[in-house]
């Protein structure tokens, strides 16, 4: 259900930019001979020439529509050029479209906060840029206005007698007597024109745009005049726009809610909503949705443009319609393996390029029982914590499928032995990775806890080990751009801040070990190459650069949380844990080598050095949960760690050549943790995710070998295994 958000007080300038017939443009750039010709992109299969998924504007002029099959398109436009979507692993490969979309995003993001809303759509908050233009070079001061800007559509503006539309637009843009909102909007028109021209110049793609005071209106406007045009919604034209707008055309009203408004309240246009009081709408649809409906009827929407250039999730899917439905476990496994391979590749490149990791793996499927094809019973979506590496993802996905299949068949009263019952058919499979966070922010959830409500936290640790039912995601969507990621949440911290100091780099490193490295797989090149160095240097990007003591990090606490929240934290024991962080318990000494109580905090991969002299052999299974996944493939069976390195680690040493990185040296020389001195009652009072995080520090090797509290890293690696296991 939509949620109302308060409108911001000042006028905002928001643009929605949408690429025209996007896949067609990408294919035309690949094959310039197709430019100007009626062209469509088709997802090929044998049935009637495959389905059209993008239709160029020349082909649209002949009546070709996206709902047509290739054969039908040829009937209405015999000269149409049908280009097949690239194929990899037996399915559509959208990477060239994704990459082309990224090119555009990187240009648009130059002028303001940019939110990638889909593969070819972007929202921009241009308020600051418009304010700056208004202050420095207001449109009214311009002698000449760009020709392209003069082609803009200004809703509600009618050409005056004797004036052509360009002259009318120029007059509107350059009015001295316009109010502040319209002046800002005029700046927005000029900025978006410039951006669209830049996109054309650098990528050869045309796009259309809507410019308004909020996202909802900008989105409505961008589709009004296509291709390669832009439409602006002055405040004074909002009512006229919404009065006649069919209710189902409004974002979030295309589905059940829109149908309910039509059927139950007789609402056919957005303007019809004006007849209902806010109370009435709240009574019928709940407090939030009622207010949201009341607002949209008046063109009010406070939804922010989120700073997000990257997708929120990755997915890979394929459908198997009609006779192509899958009926054997082997065929399902074959396709799942293909989908997982693609997903894994994308996760690795996301990790490598953007330093982001995904936490949740989800399988969606559509199925029917062969004797009951009308059944509406759904194949349950299943999720589990995501482990990196193609083989692991394939294995986990297959297990999710089997769990889902058992449940699906169980809903028909069919008991299965394994998956041997054969009366099922699978018509679609998709696998997705979600809860993607920057490696860094995944390492700072305790900071976020102290900063305010932890909206995401270290999610995978909250998930049970067994599979869980997943909220439905878009089954075929290959990327989702729709929700917040943690970086944005961090950026959202407003206003005045209170500062606490503690040794943050080390906290990050701790959690890095607990949360990240043990989930990464050697098949991701980044982990192969870096064994901790890469992430450690990423970690440092978040360290304050202006502080003398690089070990100390200032952590902001949200000031808009009321005082009582701070005191509540105190009451709940947060103050004592803060004291703990601030006190000598996290001693920053390099001289005190108390091996009895020391817990080594280094990612163990950092310990692996070239200079092996005296070595102990550590079987791989001993390292699985700490370092094994970070090791290069050639090192997986066993790892040689020089004895002196273990001793160094055990004493939280000041080693200088551990990984060749000064930054890591700086951290590694810093401190040790007396775990006995953490008051368990304090931990118990913290939120679950923080408890898990601290427990992970205390017991870094969760499975299969548990280390007793108080044991040192040297004990852990000691050949006398019995001493270590509980
Ligand atoms: P759209 O933006 O919906 O459409 P479009 O860019 O092709 O055309 P327009 O100029 O009218 O905006 O979709 C963007 C791309 O997404 C489109 O080029 C192909 C792909 N797509 C699909 O693969 N399947 C679909 O059902 C839709 C709607 C789009």
Strand content: 15-25%
End-to-end Cα distance:
49 Å
Global structural class: alpha+beta
**What is the CATH fold-level name of the domain at 99-297?**
Alpha-Beta Plaits
Q: What is the highest CATH level, the class of the domain at 99-297?
A: Alpha Beta
The CATH architecture of the domain at 99-297: 2-Layer Sandwich
| Relative helix content | 25-40%
User: Roughly what is the average pLDDT, rounded to an integer?
Assistant: 70
Number of helices: 29
Largest sheet: 6 strands, mixed
Q: Spatial order of the strands in the main sheet?
A: 7-8-1-10-11-9
Radius of gyration: 29 Å
Question: What's the topology here?
Answer:
Blueprint: E1 14-19, H1 22-30, E2 39-43, E3 51-55, H2 57-61, H3 70-76, E4 81-84, E5 87-88, E6 91-92, H4 95-108, E7 113-118, E8 121-125, H5 127-136, H6 147-150, E9 153-154, H7 165-173, H8 180-203, E10 207-212, H9 215-222, E11 230-232, H10 238-243, H11 256-265, H12 278-285, H13 287-297, E12 313-319, H14 329-354, E13 356-369, E14 382-385, H15 390-410, E15 424-438, H16 445-451, H17 459-462, E16 468-469, E17 479-480, H18 486-492, E18 497-502, H19 504-516, H20 525-530, H21 533-541, E19 553-558, H22 563-571, H23 574-582, E20 586-587, E21 615-619, H24 620-623, E22 638-642, H25 643-650, H26 662-668, E23 672-673, H27 680-685, H28 688-698, H29 713-717
Parallel strand pairs: 2-4, 9-11, 10-11
Antiparallel strand pairs: 1-8, 1-10, 2-3, 5-6, 7-8, 12-15, 12-17, 13-14, 13-15, 14-16, 18-19, 20-23, 21-22
Thymidine-5'-triphosphate is lined by residues 18-23, 53-54, 119-120, 226-227.
């Amino acid at each position: 259900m939509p949620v109302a958000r308060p409108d911001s007080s000042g006028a905002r300038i928001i643009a929605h930019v949408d690429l025209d017939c996007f896949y067609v443009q990408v294919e035309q750039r690949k094959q310039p001979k197709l430019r100007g010709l009626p062209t469509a992109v088709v997802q090929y299969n044998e049935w009637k020439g495959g389905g059209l998924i993008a239709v160029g504007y020349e082909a649209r002029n002949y009546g070709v529509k996206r709902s047509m099959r290739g054969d039908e398109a040829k009937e209405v436009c015999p000269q149409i050029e049908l280009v097949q979507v690239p194929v990899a692993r037996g399915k559509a490969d959208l990477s060239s479209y994704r990459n082309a979309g990224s090119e555009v995003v990187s240009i648009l993001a130059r002028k303001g906060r940019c939110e990638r809303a889909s593969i070819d759509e972007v929202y921009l908050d241009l308020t600051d840029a418009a304010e700056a233009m208004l202050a420095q070079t207001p449109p009214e001061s311009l002698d000449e206005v760009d020709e392209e800007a003069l082609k803009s559509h200004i809703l509600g503006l009618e050409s005056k007698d004797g004036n052509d539309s360009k002259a009318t637009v120029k007059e509107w843009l350059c009015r001295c007597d316009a109010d502040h909102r319209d002046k800002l909007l005029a700046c927005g028109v000029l900025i978006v024109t410039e951006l669209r021209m830049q996109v054309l110049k650098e990528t050869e793609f045309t796009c259309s745009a809507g410019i308004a005071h909020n996202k909802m209106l900008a989105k409505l406007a961008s589709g009004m005049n296509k291709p390669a045009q832009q439409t602006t919604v002055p405040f004074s034209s909002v009512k006229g726009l919404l009065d006649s707008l069919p209710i189902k055309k409004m974002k979030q009203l295309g589905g059940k809610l829109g149908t309910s408004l039509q059927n139950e309240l007789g609402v056919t246009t957005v303007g019809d909503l004006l007849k209902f009081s806010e109370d009435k709408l709240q009574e019928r649809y709940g407090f939030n949705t009622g207010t949201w409906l009341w607002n949209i009827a008046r063109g009010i929407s406070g939804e922010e443009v989120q700073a997000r250039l990257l997708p929120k999730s990755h997915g890979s899917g394929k459908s198997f319609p009609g006779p192509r439905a899958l009926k054997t476990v082997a065929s399902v496994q074959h396709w799942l393996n293909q989908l997982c391979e693609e997903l894994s590749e994308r996760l690795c490149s996301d990790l490598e390029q953007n330093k982001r990791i995904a936490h949740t793996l989800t399988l969606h499927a559509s199925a029917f029982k062969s004797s009951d094809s009308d059944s509406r019973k759904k194949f349950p979506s299943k999720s589990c914590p995501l482990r990196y590496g193609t083989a692991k993802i394939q294995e986990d996905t297959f297990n999710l499928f089997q769990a889902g299949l058992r449940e699906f068949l169980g809903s028909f009263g069919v008991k299965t032995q394994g998956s041997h019952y054969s009366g099922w058919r699978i018509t679609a499979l998709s696998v997705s990775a979600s809860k993607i966070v920057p490696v860094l922010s995944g390492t700072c959830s305790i900071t976020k806890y102290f900063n305010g409500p932890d909206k995401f936290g270290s999610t995978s640790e909250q998930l049970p080990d067994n599979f869980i039912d997943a909220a439905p995601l878009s089954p075929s969507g290959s990327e989702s751009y729709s929700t917040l990621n943690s970086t944005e949440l961090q950026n959202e911290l407003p206003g005045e801040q209170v500062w606490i100091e503690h040794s943050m780099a080390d906290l990050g490193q701790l959690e890095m070990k607990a949360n990240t490295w043990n989930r990464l797989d050697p098949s991701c090149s980044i982990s192969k190459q870096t064994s901790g160095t890469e992430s450690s240097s990423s970690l440092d990007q978040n360290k304050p650069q202006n502080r003398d003591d690089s070990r100390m990090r200032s952590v902001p606490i949200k000031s808009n949380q009321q005082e009582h929240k701070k005191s509540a934290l105190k009451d709940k024991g947060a103050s004592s844990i803060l004291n703990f962080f601030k006190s000598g318990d996290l001693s920053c000494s390099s001289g005190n080598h108390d091996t009895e109580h020391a817990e080594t905090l280094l990612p163990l991969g950092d310990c692996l050095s070239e200079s092996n002299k005296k070595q102990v052999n550590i079987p791989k299974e001993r390292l699985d949960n700490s370092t094994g996944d970070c090791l290069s493939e050639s090192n997986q069976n066993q790892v040689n760690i020089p004895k002196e390195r273990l001793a160094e680690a055990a004493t939280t040493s000041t080693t200088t050549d551990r990984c060749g990185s000064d930054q890591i040296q700086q951290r590694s020389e810093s401190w040790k943790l007396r775990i006995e001195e953490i008051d368990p009652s304090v931990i118990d009072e913290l939120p679950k995710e923080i408890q898990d995080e601290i427990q992970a520090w205390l017991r870094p090797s969760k499975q299969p070998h548990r280390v007793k509290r108080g044991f040192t890293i040297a004990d852990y690696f000691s050949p006398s295994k019995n001493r270590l296991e509980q």
